[in-house]
Amino acid sequence: MVLDPQGAAVKNSLKALGYEDVSQVRVGKYIELTIEAPGREDASARVDEMSRRLLSNPVIEDFSYTLEEAGV
To answer: Of 9 and 3, which is predicted with more confidence?
Structure first.
């Protein structure tokens, strides 16, 4: 496993913002999150909110995301 200090910092920041459902964050050319949500719509809403609040800089970045079931 490769150490990812930026991923750890983002994970800690998300938890500080109240996103306790995030269990993993990896940052590279893209950000990969593993979260638990009751359904696809809830997961999509959470990822969109997290992206707008912390994970992207709207001045210089756009973001998009895809959802996958765990283990797929």
So the answer is: 9
Write out the H or E segment, with its range, that includes residue 44: helix 40-50
Query: Which pair of tokens denotes residue 3?
Result: 């150490």
Q: How far apart are CA 31 and CA 43, in angstroms?
A: 15
pLDDT confidence band for 61 (50 / 70 / 90)? confident
How remote is the C-alpha of 15 from its chain's centroid? Answer: 11
Here the contacts of 51-58 (C-beta below 8 Å, separation 24 or greater) are: 53/17, 54/10, 54/13, 54/14, 54/17, 55/10, 55/31
d(CA 21, CA 62): 24
CA distance 52 to 58: 8
